[in-house]
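Appendix B, example 12.
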Amino acid sequence: MKNQPKLVLASSSVFRKELLKKIYSNFEAASPDIDEAAQENETPQSLATRLAYEKASALSETFPDHIIIGSDQVAMLGDTQLTKPGSHGKCVEQLSLSSGKIITFYTSVCVLNSKTNVFSSDLDTCKVHMKQLSTEEIEHYVLRDKPYGCAAAFKSEGLGIVLFEKIEADDPNALVGLPLIKLTKLLSNMGCKVL
């Protein structure tokens, strides 16, 4: 389409890149270097929203005339945040804790116009009901899917789907890391037409 604003995805995630390609083929991607630690008394929703904005904002000097997309996801098991496990043992530990329980994913997306500094954001909430899992099932899953870099220790776009009883979600893409339904609306409001 003609006269489309230049688009940048503020992420190094291959999953987010693949999701964005579903709706928008022409974009750049760059990794924002920000501190992702939670602030004192910060809610999961606020954390996800703040980090999505900070990711987009971190690239505004490098891309001064662009629409920049930032996104962040926070996974919660009750009051415990499930981060990226990083190792086989941590994956097994997280999945053992999550067995038979509900994990809530808060996925925020922020769209920032770096030229005008105008931004808007939205937050998607997704609940994943986990099956009751045996230690053997967890071990087999982790060995096959190797979800070391995935919050809550599973890849929903891969074999991880077999770990679920059900998903309560408005947008299945949000669970993978980018809520495309909300993003499409935000992009449209910034002059980036998908259709």
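The mean pLDDT is 95. The helical segments are 14-23, 44-58, 88-98, 135-145, 172-176, 180-189.
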